[in-house]
Amino acid sequence: MDISQVREAIVTLLSDSPNLLGKYIFPDSTEIPAVYVVGQKSVPSEWQVKGLELTIRQYPEVLPNAGVGVAVVLQQWEVVLVQYNPDGKEIADAMDRMARRFPDATFRYTPGDDIAYERCRIIIPDTTIRRLYAEP
Amino acid sequence: MPAVNAVIIGQNLIEKALIDAFETWTEEDINDAHWEDQFKENKWQYDNETRRKNGDVVTSPRDIYDLGNLYESGIKSYRFQRSPDGAEANWHWDAKNSSGEEYAWYVHEGRGTNVTARPFTDDISIPSSFFFKAPGKALKLRVTQYLDRLNAS
């Protein structure tokens, strides 16, 4: 999978009826779904978040293991769900959907408290077998 | 009709070798080496500039050592126990902040959006990637090493 496939799979999963994804609100009050791909920078701090936020790290961790003529390559995608409204229950439903879509993922759940929002970091493994490049 | 018979002999010695390999791995490869890499290497991506308690101003990527309180609490908590069922190693990062609360989880998992997770135990605690990473490879090597010694003796 590449980042656009991962993003599409998860957004489709979480926006299916009933939609679980929250919204980003820009300084000019425009709203978009709270989905962000984290590359060099995280979500701009001037964006407000309402409801459940989904962030996905742009680049997976790539872990190759050598075979004979092939490499077994494990890519690990990191996805973070944060529940910005403390009374919201979307994160529980989102974790349930994610667990059923990605049953081999690892879930790291943190309950909300007076310091931090309720949050779940999910590591999704994606293993492929690739041919080695032939020597010139 | 040809017949082949295979047996495992010295089961207790094999078990002991595996547990000895596990103990050496937890002590030398993890407690003495892996945690140091996790805490002292500039490997963690982080958005904001931070002035640390040790006076350093750090950007990204950064280490998570600072004054070393969290790191020290983990390596000093290392316990290894053998039992009739096998063996177990434990670590507990119980360093506390100025409010008297343990803060390891916030470093490990982050907070909200802009405080990034620095998951320093993931390399040994995520099953799907364990044998792809250095600790898993080191454990395989230790097991091979200890079983080879058994064969040699």
Concise description?
Chain A is an alpha+beta fold and about 140 residues long.
Can you walk through the features of this model?
The complex is a heterodimer of chains A (136) and B (153). Chain A is of the alpha+beta class. Chain A has one domain. Chain A is built from two helices and nine strands; from the N terminus they run H-E-E-E-E-E-E-E-H-E-E. In chain A, strands 3, 5, 6, 7, 8 and 9 form a six-stranded mixed β-sheet that branches. In chain A, strands 2-1-4 form a three-stranded antiparallel β-sheet, with no helix packed on it. Chain B has a two-stranded antiparallel sheet with strand order 1-2. Chain B is elongated. The two termini of chain B are 35 Å apart. At the A-B interface, strand 6, strand 7, strand 8 and strand 9 of A face helix 3 of B.
What is the overall number of helices of chain B? 5
Radius of gyration of chain B: 20 Å
Kindly name the structural category of chain A.
Answer: alpha+beta
The fraction of residues assigned to DSSP E strands of chain A is 35-45%
Mean pLDDT of chain A: 93
State the assembly state of the protein chains.
heterodimer
Largest sheet of chain A: 6 strands, mixed
Whole-number total of structural domains of chain B? 1
Determine the N-to-C terminus distance of chain B.
Answer: 35 Å
Q: In angstroms, what is the radius of gyration of chain A?
A: 17 Å
Biggest β-sheet description of chain B = 2 strands, antiparallel
Helical content of chain B, roughly?
Answer: 40-55%
| Order of strands in the sheet with most strands of chain B | 1-2
What is the tally of beta strands of chain B?
4
What is the count of distinct domains of chain A?
1
